[in-house]
């Protein structure tokens, strides 16, 4: 899942905490300086 519009101070751990409420996560990544991230759930 693409997650856009992130503040520069948002961490991968914060995304993991937020999206982890909706299911088990495989992957969470925020490319440096992009203001976006990617989250992948277990299928």
Automatic annotation (TrEMBL):
SUPFAM superfamilies: RNA-binding domain, RBD. GO terms for molecular function: RNA binding. Residues 1-43 form the RRM domain. It comes from the Eukaryota. Keywords: RNA-binding. Coiled coil: none annotated. InterPro entries: Nucleotide-bd_a/b_plait_sf, RBD_domain_sf, RRM_dom. Pfam families: RRM_1. This is RRM domain-containing protein. It comes from Nymphaea colorata (pocket water lily).
């Amino acid at each position: 899942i693409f997650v856009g519009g992130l503040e520069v101070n948002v961490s991968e751990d914060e995304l993991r905490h937020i999206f982890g409420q909706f299911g088990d996560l495989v992957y969470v990544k925020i490319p440096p300086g992009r203001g976006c991230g990617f989250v992948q759930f277990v299928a």
